[in-house]
């Protein structure tokens, strides 16, 4: 089997799929830190439906679906921040409203679409093995920008994730950081639609961060563990999908769940909390 | 005459049809520690939020002699420290007590740089002052409410502000911890000569350095003057619309009512 695997990895589509998997794992898991710590799990679903709605509109108008999906994600990110800041609506409520609206747009578009809907449906399920070099290049650029953003603005990001108002009062450019994170979420989701698909990308935006939350109080380690968990889920999921001839997107998501469950069971934080409970100490 | 660091002239805040602050005018000089006292819903936090730059308003607000709206420059924000009401922190959130204090220094550190050894030493020194150096490496979410409030105060002080805004810093704390926080506020005011606004609805627990108080009710200013007159039975009865009497014992104020 190892020889077969080695042979398989000589095929360009497989190499692209493997590279895309690593980039997908890294980019989604870094954003997962933001999604989990700001308690905004709906953002993944909303952005993936924005990308999907944009792609369907693109297909209707004869525009490159990736480009139109990308633009729709950025528009959604651009609306989400100011809408929740300038109204009394909580960000999760705004996301719920946007998500329903965008889903309506997407399915309206699907209903109007007269040609084959296969291209649109591929964006729902993902299709790792049909990725083009262009798809992978876009994903690499977006991942690179995200990594640089996290590295250069680490302390500002930590302050914003902790408490936006306190960050602002301490002179941190809180709004710029928050809106940049929203835009990057849109960019990462739309560039990853082709890998794991719109339905499942939500899992990769939540589970790696949730895994890290079980294991560490150090923010730098948090990002690293989240990234390792995401990349591990993607790599192992791809491997399992090859060995057992299973859908790759679903395999990746299920591996992410297994990794989270393992972290939860062996969580040192949980053990410490239980020990304190038994000893009656706060 | 002392420099006026904060001046408000006819400041009004309206939200969804309600008037939260109604034409408030006041001036706070450098070095003053002023109490903002009133019942729940009086507009105390709204007033603090206007000065902190979190709330839109009508009227004129000046800070450090410069007219401001709710959008502040980074330079102005750095000069105004803010201690919020105690808020819950997820016990699993990845931030240690000393790291939470260091977030106060981020604005001064600037982009693309990290807090250096000097700032870390300052943060530890502040925690030592608060008698919290033993929990510096503990996750913030695992500290008690009182410990978190002290960390919040340390964070605001590390920012080295000229004005310190404190929103009910002793709320939801037991009496011994309230006394510790008030003593810290007194000590900081004495050492740093900060200009401070201290919001509270509990007028029996106030820093001893406080010499002036504003009484707010339903968004209106009822009184602005020396603390003893502000906290007399007559003034408080008018404020709370309930017959109250106050007396002092051992330097502390107490209230009695039927």
Main pleated-sheet profile of chain B? 6 strands, mixed
Shape summary of chain A: globular
Query: How many H/I helical runs of chain A?
Result: 14
Instruction: Indicate how many domains the architecture of chain B comprises.
Output: 2
Level of helix content of chain A? over 70%
Range of strand content of chain A: under 5%
Overall number of strands of chain B: 12
CATH architectural designation of the largest domain in chain B: 3-Layer(aba) Sandwich
User: How many strands of chain A?
Assistant: 0
Which whole number gives the mean pLDDT of chain A? 85
DSSP strand (E) fraction of chain B? 25-35%
| Cα-based radius of gyration of chain A, to the nearest Å | 19 Å
CATH class placement of the largest domain in chain B: Alpha Beta
Layout of secondary structure:
The complex is a heterodimer of chains A (282) and B (258).
Chain A: H1 2-8, H2 12-37, H3 42-61, H4 65-86, H5 91-112, H6 118-125, H7 133-152, H8 154-162, H9 164-169, H10 174-196, H11 201-213, H12 219-244, H13 248-265, H14 268-279
Chain B: E1 4-15, E2 18-29, E3 33-37, H1 44-52, E4 58-63, E5 66-68, H2 74-79, E6 80-83, H3 97-102, H4 106-109, H5 117-129, H6 145-158, E7 163-167, H7 175-192, E8 195-200, E9 212-217, E10 220-226, H8 227-230, H9 233-240, E11 244-249, E12 252-257
Parallel strand pairs in B: 3-8, 3-9, 6-7, 7-8
Antiparallel strand pairs in B: 1-2, 1-4, 4-5, 9-10, 11-12
Helix pairs in contact in B: 5-6
């Amino acid at each position: 089997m190892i020889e077969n695997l080695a042979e398989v990895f000589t095929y360009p589509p497989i190499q692209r799929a493997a590279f895309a998997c690593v980039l997908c794992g890294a980019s989604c898991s870094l954003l997962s830190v933001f999604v989990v710590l700001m308690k905004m799990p709906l953002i993944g679903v909303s952005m993936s439906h924005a990308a999907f709605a944009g792609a369907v509109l693109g297909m209707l108008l004869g525009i490159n679906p990736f480009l139109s999906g990308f633009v729709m994600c950025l528009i959604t990110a651009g609306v989400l921040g100011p809408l929740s800041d300038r109204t009394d609506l909580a960000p999760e409520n705004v996301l719920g409203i946007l998500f329903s609206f965008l889903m309506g747009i997407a399915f309206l578009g699907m209903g109007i679409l007269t040609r084959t809907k296969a291209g649109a449906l591929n964006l729902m399920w993902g299709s790792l093995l049909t990725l083009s070099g262009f798809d992978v290049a876009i994903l690499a650029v977006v991942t690179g920008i995200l990594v640089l953003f996290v590295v250069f603005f680490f302390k500002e990001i930590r302050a914003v994730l902790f408490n936006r108002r306190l960050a602002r009062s301490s002179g941190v450019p809180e709004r710029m950081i928050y809106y940049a994170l929203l835009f990057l979420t849109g960019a990462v989701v739309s560039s990853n639609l082709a890998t794991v698909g719109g339905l499942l990308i939500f899992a990769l935006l939540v589970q790696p961060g949730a895994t890290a939350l079980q294991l560490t109080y150090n923010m730098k380690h948090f990002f690293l563990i989240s990234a390792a968990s995401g990349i591990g889920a993607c790599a192992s999921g791809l491997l399992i999908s090859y060995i057992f001839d299973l859908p790759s997107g679903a395999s990746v998501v299920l591996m992410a769940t297994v990794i989270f469950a393992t972290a939860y069971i062996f969580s040192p934080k949980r053990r410490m909390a239980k020990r304190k409970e038994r000893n009656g100490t706060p | 005459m002392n420099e006026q660091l904060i001046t408000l002239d006819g400041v009004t805040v309206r939200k969804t049809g309600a008037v939260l602050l109604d034409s408030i005018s006041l001036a706070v000089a450098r070095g003053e520690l002023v109490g903002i006292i009133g019942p729940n819903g009086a507009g105390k936090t709204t007033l603090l939020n206007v000065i902190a730059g979190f709330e839109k308003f009508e009227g004129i607000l000046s800070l450090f002699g410069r007219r401001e709206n709710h959008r502040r420059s980074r330079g102005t924000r750095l000069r105004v420290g803010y201690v919020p009401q105690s808020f819950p922190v997820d016990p699993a959130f990845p931030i240690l007590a000393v790291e939470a204090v260091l977030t106060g220094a981020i604005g001064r550190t600037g982009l693309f740089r990290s807090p250096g050894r000097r700032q870390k030493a300052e943060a530890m020194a502040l925690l030592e002052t608060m008698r919290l150096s033993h929990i510096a490496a503990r996750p913030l979410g695992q500290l008690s409410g009182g410990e978190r409030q002290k960390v919040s105060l340390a964070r605001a002080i590390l920012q080295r502000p000229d004005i310190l805004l404190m929103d009910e810093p002793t709320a939801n704390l037991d009496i011994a911890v309230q006394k510790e926080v008030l003593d810290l506020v007194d000590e900081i005011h004495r050492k740093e000569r900060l200009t401070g606004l201290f919001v509270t609805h509990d007028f029996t627990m106030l820093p001893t350095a406080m010499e002036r108080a504003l009484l707010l009710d339903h968004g209106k200013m009822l009184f602005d003057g020396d603390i003893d007159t502000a906290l007399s039975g007559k003034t408080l009865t008018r404020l709370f619309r309930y017959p109250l009497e106050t007396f002092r014992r051992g330097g502390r104020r107490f209230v009695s009512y039927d």
